[in-house]
């Protein structure tokens, strides 16, 4: 991969990688760090990566870096503000986007990742499997379970609206 190819990759994929990581982590600063680390890793191995495989390599690297970040945070025992307010009552109106985002956040980590890669980023089942290291069948199972959970959690859209 040449420097021009790398710069094109940054221009073309930085936003989509950031959105994917942000949806999973929910923290803008950590998402930026993961994206920056992923591009750094890609730059270090630029001579080994072809321009055609850059997108796949970038998402795969970002996914694994994100998993490492989640494990690191879990081991450090971070407590967020939502843990304190979990049982409090709020009279706020939530729009449909907020309801869906809240439901997606409740999915198990792997289901959320494959669902976001497939439905938000538009990857094929095979590409999602390559990024996450899962078989295509397992990707389909996780996506089915995630969609089923979302359907049950959100219920009828007529009732939400």
Characteristic terms for this protein:
161 residues; mainly alpha; single chain; Arc Repressor Mutant, subunit A; 2 domains
Short summary of the structure?
The chain is mainly alpha-helical and 161 residues long. The protein has 9 helices and no strands.
How does this structure look, described?
- The chain is mainly alpha-helical.
- It has 2 domains: 1-78, Rna Polymerase Sigma Factor, Chain: A (Orthogonal Bundle); 92-161, Arc Repressor Mutant, subunit A (Orthogonal Bundle).
- The protein has helices at 3-25, 28-44, 54-76, 81-84, 96-105, 109-120, 125-132, 136-154, 157-160.
- The protein is globular, with a radius of gyration of 17 Å.
- It starts with a helix and ends with a helix.
- 22% of the residues are buried.
């Amino acid at each position: 991969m040449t420097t021009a190819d790398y710069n094109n990759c940054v221009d073309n994929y930085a936003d989509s990688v950031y959105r994917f990581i942000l949806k999973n982590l929910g923290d803008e600063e950590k998402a930026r760090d993961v994206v920056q680390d992923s591009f750094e890793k890609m730059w270090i191995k630029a001579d080994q990566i072809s321009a055609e495989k850059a997108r796949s390599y970038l998402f795969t690297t970002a996914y694994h870096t994100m998993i490492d970040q989640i494990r690191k945070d879990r081991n450090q025992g971070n407590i967020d503000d939502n843990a304190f307010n979990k049982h409090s009552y709020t009279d706020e109106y939530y729009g449909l986007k907020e309801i869906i985002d809240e439901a997606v956040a409740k999915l198990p980590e792997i289901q959320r990742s494959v669902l976001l890669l497939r439905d938000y980023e538009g990857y094929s089942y095979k590409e999602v499997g390559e990024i996450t290291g899962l078989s295509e069948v397992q990707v389909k199972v996780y996506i089915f379970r995630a969609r089923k959970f979302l359907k049950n959690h959100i219920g009828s859209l007529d009732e939400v609206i």
